[in-house]
Amino acid sequence: MNKRLTLWSFLTFTLLLGLSFLKPSKAGAVSAWERTSLNKAGLTSIEVAPYGIFAGQKNDNSWENPYNGIFFSGDFGKTWREFGLQSYGITDIKVRDNKIYAVAYYSPATHPGGLYYSEDFGETWEHKGDDFYGTCIEVADGIIYLGTHENGLWVSRNNGITWEHAFSEIWGGPHIEEIYVTEDKVFAKTSSKFIYSTDAGKTWQDDIRLAEIYALDLLKKGKTIYAGTKSGGLYVSNDMGGTWEATKRLKGMETQKLGKAGRSLFAATITTEDWPFMDIYISKDQGTTWQSTYLHDQIKTRDIKDSAEISRISSSIFFAILPEYGLYKLDIGYSDEKYPFLGKLWKDQEDMELMDKITSFFDHEYPLLGYGYYSEPPESAHSTLNFLGQEEEAPKMYYSSHNGYDFALSVGTEITAPAPGLANYYYCTGCGNSIKIDHQNGYETTYMHFQEDDLLTKERNANIPVEEGTVIGKVGMTGNTTGPHLHFQIEKDADSDGNFVDDYPSGMVDPFGWKIYSILDPWPFFEWDDSLGTHKGTPSKYLWKENWAVWEIKETFERNPVLMELSNIKIETTSNIAYYPLNLTLQKYGHQKVGGKKYIENTSFLLKAESFIGEALHKLSDFIKITIKLPDNLPEEIDPRKLDIFHWNEDLTLWEKLETIFIPETFSLQAETDEISKFAVFAEGITATNGQTSVYVEGKQENDWFVEYPLITMTGPEGETPVFSIEGGTWQTYTEPFYLQMEGLIFFRYLSKDPNNNQEITEIELIKVDTQGKVHKSLKFNQAKIVIQ
Q1: Could you tell me if 233 and 322 lie in one domain?
Q2: Between the CA of residue 728 and those of 460, 471, 747, 749, 764, what are the distances in Å?
Q3: Can you tell me the distance from the alpha carbon of 153 to that of 306, in angstroms, rounded to the nearest whole number?
Q4: Are residues 570 and 468 located together in one domain of the fold?
Q5: 628 shares its domain with 709
Q6: What range does the domain containing 627 cover?
């Protein structure tokens, strides 16, 4: 099967030429290969669809009375049934847009060979094109590419009604073994070379570069194409096959076929050590290192026909067809790298509160906040990629280039050291009062925006010993901040020299690690050069040691009701939410900020439903029931009977209210929906404050500049306290009018807070003061930068 350059090529066995060197490691634990119940000889192709797995058979040994049709499994390959096209000799299968395409090699009785397709799940089949000995197929962007045994390659642009012979007007043509599709090219492999088209199959030319490196198979993963070669090892192209670069990986090995499963790469190889039998190597780090799966120790095979993958909840299953033996599978489990040493971040921190308080995530693409020597490219400058593999722009997720976490905490919340270490003071204009702790284990943590009072120290080189739980400061609003919060970041001493300064920003890491199993974390693989030298990101490990940081559960739906309970969230499904298996994930999510609504803490969560090939569903066939237990310490001004569960509408990009029931006996809310998205509980009509703060600036002016120190007067809504910050400094409580005794352009930030520490959105007033006639008299704005003239 060809799944857009992700599945095996079908190649005949070739002897290894050259010596084997730089042999990949065979150390470490690898799951054993398991033979499935589809133990049929002559299997040729496998395709994973949202509703099951298809396999084709073409067995030329008629005395074995082969089925030579399509098999189907709807239970992840546990059991199989005959599906159709018996005796046709199936060489390839594709499922695209709910159509099943099958390529037949034989012409049984009065039925022609070639291409068949079904739009009704195999109830009826329609033949398309001429009577060919079909070999392979690919369907992309509405175009069908059909490979044949001795009649070359054919292309149809109208669903098989008419066909174009790809190479010439002559009826014959080369034997086509495999077809690959990328964003801008179509590759076809003949028995002797690769050819390609850049105009959707209208014209074709030989790929000289692939011939030069003796390429045997191609694999596209993300934006990279890998090429397995006869004896030159692994080649890589980062421009969709325009140029190829040799690597030192798998050097000297005949790399016949390449495949993938989740974040892992596979390579089927033959070496002088294993000759004449094939082994399969696996790489879990984007092809940097390879490890044997010991296939040759279990099964003596010289060829692999095809492969496919199923990405499951916490693992992937890699399927490989061994022509003599049938279908085998390898279960690839993934586990987070862990180094648990961090405890709680603030006093009286409750279970699940850590996730719920997050307002800004670590950006796994470019965590370059405050780094002036290299910037993220424009196409990524407005999006954030978090540890769940989700990439969004503000206001759905804050904020691009962030190198740590922001936690929504009230002013005065006591921050505690999460682990022992040596603490020092740090200050910068954007950071405000900050504390750094060297934990003497290769990690340093930083805490920003503390208030002036009750700081552990204000000495930069104090090296004050702290234990886990030691109070190091209180949440404030110093530095560049629009409200009280804790900015928390962690850095690894990447070169182990005891100096964290020279590791910034490459040493920045995410304490939540990287949770998504299907793709690699981009940050540790990102390399760049700037005026300070060459840098590379650092892998993130899960660093929290307590189980309150556990924030998700996963279940598999297989046409039976599912119950999922996580902390105060419960999800109940019927047996009819989908007609094929689903992977369900329930995750606690971060703090929600929505204008005109007050978020109720610890009620935000994300529900995901994916087919076993990783396709996301956003609407189910039946309703699910959501139950959310409300926090016991609900603010007095909030009536629980007037709360509602909301879901995020991706198409309309807004929060929509669900019909919600309040259950007094359990102090819970309940709603039903067939939508799959993000959910949270809000109180409508209750915003951060009940009014608006006003600032009055009085004094003598000339050309909009105050030529005497201006008098500042503030008024806030009744019962609320105005606060202000000058030039990003400490936030101060307004008590009475005062003179602003400063010169130049002054940024004056202000807002009001109610008794529960709810607050307005920060406003900014630009005040221009020149009492000595030394400051220029006009301004202009140049690309958001203020220029004084």
Answers
A1: yes
A2: 21, 25, 8, 8, 11
A3: 20
A4: no
A5: no
A6: 551-684
Does 415 have pLDDT greater than 50?
Answer: yes
Secondary-structure breakdown of the chain: helix, strand, coil percentages, each rounded to the nearest 5 = 5, 45, 55
Other Cβ atoms closer than 10 A to 771: 17
Q: List Cβ<8 Å contacts ≥24 apart for 228-232.
A: 228/255, 228/256, 228/257, 228/258, 228/267, 228/269, 229/254, 229/255, 230/14, 230/17, 230/254, 231/16, 231/17, 231/18
Count of domains observed in the chain: 4
Q: How far apart are CA 221 and CA 259, in angstroms?
A: 9
* C-alpha–C-alpha distance, residues 604 and 756, integer Å: 21
Domain endpoint, select from 655, 684, 713: 684
Nearest to 404 by CA among 439, 363, 359: 363
**Listed residue (405, 415, 371) closest to 487, CA to CA:** 405
Which pLDDT value is given to residue 444? 97
**Judgement on whether residues 617 and 670 belong to the same structural domain of the protein:** yes
Please name every residue paired with 330 in a beta bridge, in sequence order, or none if there are none: 318
Worst-scoring range by mean pLDDT, 253-262, 503-512, 621-630?
253-262
The average pLDDT across 722-746 equals: 86
Q: Decide: 507 and 493 in contact? Cβ < 8 Å.
A: yes
401 within a domain of the structure (yes/no): yes
Question: Which CATH number does the domain housing residue 765 bear?
Answer: 2.60.40
Q: Classify the phi-psi angles of 28: left when phi > 0, otherwise alpha if psi is within -120 to 50, otherwise beta.
A: left
Whether 442 and 563 share a structural domain: no
Report the distance separating Cα 83 and Cα 528, nearest Å.
Answer: 52
Q: pTM for the complete prediction?
A: 0.71
Beta bridge pairs of residue 491: 444, 508
The answer to whether position 540 is within a domain reads: yes
Question: Residue 160 domain-assigned?
Answer: yes
- 157 assigned to some structural domain: yes
Residue where a domain terminates, one of 519, 547, 575: 547
407-443 burial string, b = 16+ CB within 10 Å, else e?
bbbebebebbbbbbbbbbbeeeeebbbbbbbbbeeeb
> Using one digit for the tens of pLDDT, what is the confidence trace for 484-520?
899 999 999 988 888 898 889 999 999 999 988 777 8
